[in-house]
Model the fold of this input.
Amino acid sequence: MASRARLVGQGVAIGLVALLFILLAWSLVSDEGGDLAAAAARGDRPPAPDFTLERLDEEGELQLSSLQGKAVVLNVWASWCVPCKEEAPYLEELWREHRDRGLVVVGLDAKDFRADAKRFANRFDLTFPLVYDGPGDTLGDLGVTGFPESFVIDREGRVVEAFAGAVDGEDVRDRFEAAIEQALEP
Amino acid sequence: MIRLVLLALVAFMVAATDATAAPPNAADLEAELVCPVCETTLDQSNAPVAERMKTFLRVRIAAGDSEQQIKDALVAEFGPGVIAEPPAGGFGLLAWLLPLVAVAGAAVVVAVLIRRWTRRSPAERADAPLDPQLERLVDDELARFDS
Done:
């Protein structure tokens, strides 16, 4: 009887340890976000994780994969983020300059109040598509570590390069625009 | 007539309950809501979005919103994760039940151990024969005491 109880106890302990290992493995495997930027930096062009989010600039939703065939700059921002304010006019200028060549800038506002985001868009006269992700559910898949962060995505929906932080300074902007040129290639 | 009086009484009680309901307290709400960026409660955070949320709380309290209305508005913006307390349903129910299960399990383990530790061995039982050497020692001591 005692040996049976001991066996059951050992079985439960082994089961719990196995469960912890499974949870650890699952968390490592599901942490794809960090891999996305790293894979893009290696030149692998990983597929951008798809999402469907409500639009801030008009009614309805936008699905990222619906933009396949165009190059996309996906910019993650929030109205409370100071570098986002500095970057916004540049992104608007970029969108106006290259939209006819097939570039779409998509602003993904996250962890923010809708009303604040709309005020931000009005203040900076943003005319590119804006989507809203208040809870920030998409940030994990993208591997976003801070605000702002931008992803240059090619016409086939693959990430050419990821830029953590504001796209400012001549060197960063040169790299950013070079990535956009690559993304625009047919 | 009696019905009218009863209706008036009920209406008065409902109105009185509403009027006496205390407005939500900003400090209490800050301890119950989570900053979506740093994922600590608002009272522990000075992140820009947390500061913005604190302002939102005060504005809504001043506008007369109830605690539930304020929480609902924030959930509509930031999702259910903005509430520090897990929901008492669905997957969130686990967070409520697991500690209870753990406490009950620990109580069972402690009870079993206490029972095992306090169970007398056959040698300690009253009806068990004494060790002859000990018995002789007790007899000697009693005899010495009697004399």
